[in-house]
Amino acid sequence: MTVRDILLQANTHPEPTPNWAIGRATELAARIGAKVSLGVCQVHIPPLSNWLANKLLNMDGVIAGENKKSAANAAALLGSFTAMVPAEQLGETFTVDCPGMVTHWQLAVRARTHDLTVVPFYGHAETVSVAEGLVFETGRPVLLLPELAVPELKFDRIAIAWDGSSVAARALSAALPLAREASSVTLVQITGEKDLSKTAAPADAVRNLKLHGIDAEVVEIALEGRDVALTLQSYCEQDGRELLVMGAFGQSRAREFVLGGVTRSVLAGPKLPILLSH
Q1: Which in 20, 61, 151, 216 has the greatest CB count within 10 A?
Q2: Domains and CATH numbers, the chain
Q3: Which residue stretches of the chain have pLDDT < 50?
Q4: Cis peptide before 14 (omega within 30 of 0)
Q5: CA-based angle 162:163:169, to the nearest 5?
Q6: Is 247 helix (H, G, I), strand (E, B) or coil?
Q7: What's the half-sphere exposure (Cβ side, CA atoms, 13 Å) at 199?
């Protein structure tokens, strides 16, 4: 698989997606030879059916004002996107109606026909739920992208979280296009968190990567009572890893990241770009 079709998720309300996200998505597309598209969730707040609130607070007027701002932000995002993305990298642009708040449902349907969805993290209240929904509803990998204080976006040094599960295997497969371009790839196995004796060995994953032209090494980290997500991100920071690849799974109504105790903490505050696959 190669990544040729990137979708950037964007919001209009209350805080619009910043231009740095467009710039970073464009950098990534240029680096891997892909086109980048923009999917804008335009929030439309329905009118309030409350006569007293309208009489006392003019809520319909307030809502109309917020909807006007949301529409203006959508137009500004589309304008910035077409201005910032070179013609040879420019994909499609579209807007989905999000009644009341930013949600993932309509965007997830469109994202199923893109190779990779990029979700920028910039403090928007709904980013966590949107990212989680896209991971589980698209069938495609999702890149969590925080704002980075680096001159350029590059994934030369990649860490892949490995616990030998089928979900980890799917994440490994999703990472192949990026891993082929990396100068260093590590398979990171957390020990002391759960029994890994009956799962696929990291050495076998290294063998498989070798057949794809990727030289990888195994790194084992003892958990010692710490949080798995924080341990993985801490390793990446200390070792200069620019991308962390992880698998995610969902069961009934509870959705929890793979590697046992790794929960939504990775979504609450990614410290580096994280590629998630379900």
Answers
A1: 216
A2: 5-146 (3.40.50.620), 157-277 (3.40.50.620)
A3: 252, 254, 256-261, 263
A4: yes
A5: 65
A6: strand
A7: 17
